């Protein structure tokens, strides 16, 4: 494959954007000095399906602060952008809201989070526990985003987008920087896709040095539809992973990075996602939310079939779920 890209590109309406690996490194170092965060764990597992063995390195982002990879982008925003006295506002299916609330708590910044009614109770509880103001309403992420935009207009707070801010993509790229050091031999990485911030950050870091495969719920094909249309378009939002992987449309800044560096997008259905959640628990004792298990589902269900000897990396992107109930 070609060498890794030195650039983090996007649909330019700002020329001073994330533009190189050194900037991603600086964002990571600054975040680590501030919160003393550790790299998330990476486990090397051999998965067997129909008698064939596949080596898989599993990146455990559910161990991240606030329970998902979203904390990376949250800190990148709050540490690199001027914060007004009114604080920050974020719309979220749940994970981004928890991440922004956590980062704001650490940094002493006021935060208000808008989430839809489909958000997992586990995510809502995290947001409240971190001390952010919370507004729950609407049927999906798009409704929460519209409500947050009205809140920004009246408060003057800084909006922190879940996936389509430059700083958000930059922060998510720190995951790839870590994974490259932990598993330098990878041929392919499977990444769950919602709005596109995570896959854009990962693809921009690796360029064409590693094959990046996006995994979408078949009921929420926002990136697939965008690639077909050549621009972000409205798409269905149905899936058990709707609170993390169903934003209605993919990000305008993410799409050009995906077009340049992502190999392809594969769909998985809800049964495959549930099966992946069960396997992660049974085999690794890893608790993953539906969106967090989607990339693993692509391997287990055969939506992506590795070649013989191909080394695959899988991102377990989040674990904010009520699937495990210790009261029972």
Descriptive key words:
328 residues, 4-stranded parallel beta sheet, 41% helix, globular
How would you describe the overall organization of this protein?
This protein is α/β, with parallel strands linked by helices. Helix content is 41%, strand content 16%. The protein contains 12 helices and 10 strands. The protein has helices at residues 21-35, 70-80, 95-107, 121-129, 141-155, 166-182, 197-206, 222-229, 242-245, 254-261, 270-284, 290-300; strands at 42-49, 52-60, 88-91, 111-115, 133-136, 158-159, 188-192, 211-217, 264-268, 312-316. The strands form 2 sheets. The chain has a 6-stranded mixed β-sheet, sandwiched between helices. It has a 4-stranded parallel β-sheet with strand order 5-4-3-6, sandwiched between helices. Helix 3 links the parallel strand 3 and strand 4. Helix 3 (95-107) packs parallel to helix 4 (121-129). The chain is globular. Mean pLDDT is 85; it is low at 1-19, 32-38 and 46-52.
Q: Short description, anyone?
A:
The chain has twelve helices and ten strands. The chain is α/β, with parallel strands linked by helices. The model is unreliable at 1-19, 32-38 and 46-52 (pLDDT under 50).
């Amino acid at each position: 494959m070609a060498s890794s890209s030195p650039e983090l590109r996007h649909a330019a309406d700002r020329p001073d954007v994330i533009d190189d690996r050194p900037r991603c490194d600086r964002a990571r170092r600054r975040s680590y000095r501030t919160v003393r965060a550790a790299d998330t764990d990476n486990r090397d597992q051999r998965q067997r399906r129909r008698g064939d063995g596949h080596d898989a390195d599993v990146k455990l982002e559910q161990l991240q602060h606030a329970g998902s990879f979203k904390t990376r982008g949250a800190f990148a925003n709050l540490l690199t952008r001027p914060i007004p006295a009114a604080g920050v506002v974020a719309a979220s299916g749940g994970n981004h809201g928890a991440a922004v609330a956590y980062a704001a708590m650490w940094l002493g910044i006021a935060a208000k989070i808008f989430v839809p009614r489909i958000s997992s109770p586990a995510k809502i509880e995290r947001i409240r526990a971190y001390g952010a103001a919370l507004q729950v309403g609407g049927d999906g992420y798009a409704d929460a985003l519209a409500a947050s935009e009205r809140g920004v207009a009246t408060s003057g707070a800084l909006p922190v987008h879940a996936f389509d801010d430059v700083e958000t993509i930059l922060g998510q790229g720190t995951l790839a920087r870590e994974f490259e050091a932990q598993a330098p031999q990878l041929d392919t990485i499977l990444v769950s896709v919602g709005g596109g911030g995570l896959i854009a950050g990962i693809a921009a870091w690796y360029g064409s040095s590693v094959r990046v495969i996006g995994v979408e719920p078949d009921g929420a094909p926002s990136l697939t539809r965008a690639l077909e249309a050549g621009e972000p378009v409205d798409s269905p939002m149905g899936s058990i992973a709707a609170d993390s992987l169903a934003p209605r449309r993919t990000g305008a800044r993410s799409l050009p990075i995906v077009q340049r560096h992502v190999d392809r997008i594969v769909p998985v259905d809800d049964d495959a996602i549930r099966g992946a959640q069960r396997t992660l628990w049974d085999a690794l004792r890893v608790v993953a939310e539906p969106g967090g298990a989607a990339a693993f589902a692509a391997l287990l269900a055969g939506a992506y079939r590795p070649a013989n000897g191909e080394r695959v990396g899988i991102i377990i992107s989040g674990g904010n779920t009520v699937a495990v109930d210790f009261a029972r």
